[in-house]
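Box 3.1. Reading complex inputs
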Amino acid sequence: LWTIISAVPPTALGEFEQLVLLALVRLGPDAYGATVRREIETRTGRSIAISAVYTTLDRLEQKGLVRSRVGEPTAERGGRRKKHFEMMPLGARALKVAYDAFTGMTAGVEQRLKALR
Amino acid sequence: MTRLSLFVIRLLTPAAEREWVVGDTVEEFRRRERHDGARAARRWLRREMWGLVAGAARFRWTIRSRTVAQPRRVVGRDHLFRSIYTDATLAVRRWIARPALALTAILTLGVGIGAATAIFSVVDGVLLRPLPWREPERLVFVYTLSPALRTDPVLRAFWDRGPFTWPQFTELQRPVPAVEAVASWMNTRVTIGGDTAGGESAALVDALHVSSAMLPMLGVRTFAGRTFSAAEERAVSDSVLISYEAWQRRLGGDAAVLGRRVVLNDAGRTIVGVLPPGFVAQLGSGGELPLRPDFLLPFGALGDNRRPSNGAYRVVARLAPGASLLDAEAQLTPLLSGGKDTQPAVRVVPLIDEQFGRSRESLYVLLAGALLLVMIACANVAGLLLGDGSTRRHEFAMRRALGAGRAPVLRQLLTESSVLALGGGAIGVALAWWIMPALVALAPEGLPRIDTVAVDLRVLAFAVAITAATTLVCGVGPSLVGSAAPAADVLRDGQRAGRRRRWTPRAIVIGEVALATVLLCSAALLTETVLRLRSQPVGFNPDGVLALGVQIPREDAADVTRRTRIEASVLDRIRRVPGVASAAAVAAPPFSGITGFNGIGVEGRPGEVLRARRHLVTGEYFATMGIPILRGRGFQAADASWQQTTQPPPDSPITDGAGVAIVSEETERRYFGGTAVGRRMVFGRTRLTVVGVVGDVKMGRYSEDATPEFYLFTRQFPWIPVGHVVVRAADDAPALLPALRRAATTNDSHLAVTSIGTLDDAMSRTVANERYRAVLSVAFGGTAIFLAAICLFGLLSRTVNERRREIGVRMAVGATPADIVRLVIGEGSALAVAGLLLGLPAAAGVARIIQAQLFGVQPSAPHTFVLASLVLGTAVCVAMLIVARHASRVHPLAALRTS
């Protein structure tokens, strides 16, 4: 299976897509709309719309990078269900490619990058 | 708020994602509630909602720019904005494909909405907006009652609205529980001199004497400086308040205005305060003009004018909270009578009623007329859409057969009609903007606050409301009809299924004709009122007569010899102006708004004081005005041999002299019992001989009844000032105006011309109210009939189109074009007659409602209805004939071939 997957050229990820996928990595099994959003908002300090999170996750799901499952209703959400997301191998690969590209480019210049304003 | 925000978020989220998104939002909201507190959480939720709304708006924008490339991408997703947007674009495209229909509908609605909006802006500005005073609903006018005047031929109208004397006003100021404050005012005009006159040597400006309680009571705060103190009411005072506008205009907004001196009525006064901008003394009662005084003077400035006999103090009061008018009347009465009298001696009238009482009714009638017009416009557009809808029945039936619910079809039709209504609303507002200045310019001068009228947010809100109502009326009716028929029937044969429904457009035509009849009849009645009023005999011949008023400075006016010399020289100069046929001096020309009256005594009726209007004229007055001398003679130069140079004191014995008087026919009939010439009458303390009888004249209004009058010869009574000159022009009266103005002030540059104009203009102003109503109702009626004719035209031409084949067959078997014309006209006139039959009784009902605004015409006058029917008939005939001509030209072969 891995050979098949690795044969498929990885999808180029947009910046926001990268953030969402990174949030999935950080959150693990607790990843759903609200937590993903909170994670990105607290870590990047930017304010994002919940609909943007879902639009991106839907798109990633269509591309086969993530998959979703509908959870049980909880009282805290007024009896509404959660939609959980989890990373798929394709997504992991795409994120790895993006991460490698980023680290490759930043290697050796971390100090100078940090000094940037 | 929380629920609403959540609801909006729900609404704007696509159904597929709604559950998680809303769930997430709720979860985040609760978390924030715990961490940051309820307020912060609510604020967050609101921001969340607005973000979504903005996002949806952006989305709409992006799909628009994307529609060309990927048109269907968005359809089918359950997103409210998206579906509205789709419907709207569809509707716009549909209307662009039918430009004639769409334009007719939009213009029709535009006219209706425009008329209603313009009228509403006037009604709103004049009636609905609160007065600028503090709690105006507690402000009242206080009048004195004089039951004795009730039957007085001259002062009848004033018996229950009298002003007070100074002692009476002082009494009224004593505290009573029902009244919080009492104030008084007096209109006046002052000459302004010195460097503040604005270039003129002497200018006459409006001013107002007010008691010190007045401005605080109204809640008016000065822009700068102070108001008057109570001390300035009792002692002689030289303080003056200047209006903001006069401060800007006359003093150039001088920053050091407080303490500056101005010369008013030839006396120096100190400015102690500036009134707020836009201060208008909206205190005039009934038809009185609202005053824009340049100056406010304290009562202390009146000096000796405060003597007890001068009953000119108008009183306004503020009721205590919760006090009724009756309480106030009951408590104020004993103050005047010293507690003896129990009969009410004062009348208390709410300020709002008094100011708007007269205009309120007629403005509401106009608004009703405008709304009627909107209804007609709606009916018209509904008719148009209905016609359009019947051709689209097939489309809707097909859609429903394919599984579309009734709701989407209805929504689409509603969207289509709201696109039209929006267009109509936009045109309507533009139209209102455009005609409103005309409405304001046309408005009678007495209409209070007319100058504050403007198209603003309130008016726009009204236009939006009307537009929304229009959408519903125009859209829902036809859609219900359009989607009602069973789909299968329509698909089988659209024509047959439509038979039954043709009654709806016919009912619309009938209704429109009926409404147009109502408007036309009212227009006819109101127009006839103006014509009747204007053709009322006034007792003189106003054609080519001009009047001008001249103000003589105080120090000259105080000296009888000097004043009479100036009066004589002004008259002399005016006589010599080329083009002046004759001229005469008079104290108060007719329709000038000025009248003087006196109690007179008549020989043979001892002890009786009979009231009559007093005229002071020179000998040429009757000839100049065209007032007929019925019996006896006019004033002659020889009469001037006897003169009274000073006013005899009121308690002096009655003296005889060679004084003469001329009385009017009404005076002769009412007071002299038939023959007056040669008999004696008493004016003041002087016995005069009646030497002539002249015809009755009207002085203030066309509708006034004959009033007793007497004329004195100004050369016999030089102590009474005459401030006006009437001039009969040889030919072109208005062309004489500049020359007259020049002639009046040449050599006497300190004279001020207070008024100048043709008598006809002055007379025409008195029917301004009636004319306003008439012009507007004619405009409404005309528009209504135009719309009705268009609607009938539309219906008939549609029918002819549908019956093309039938007409072709008829012509093929030998029907002549005349038969076809008869066919069309038969149908059209049946509808018109039905509309008339429905409209005429309604018009009679409306006529009774507006009866109070009519003069000289009975509300049930048959000729009005005949006239309205004729006008309507003509319009209908024109519409029918155009269609009929078209129908009769149908070539039988062509008609048969195409079907």
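In summary: The two ends of chain A are 45 Å apart (CA to CA).
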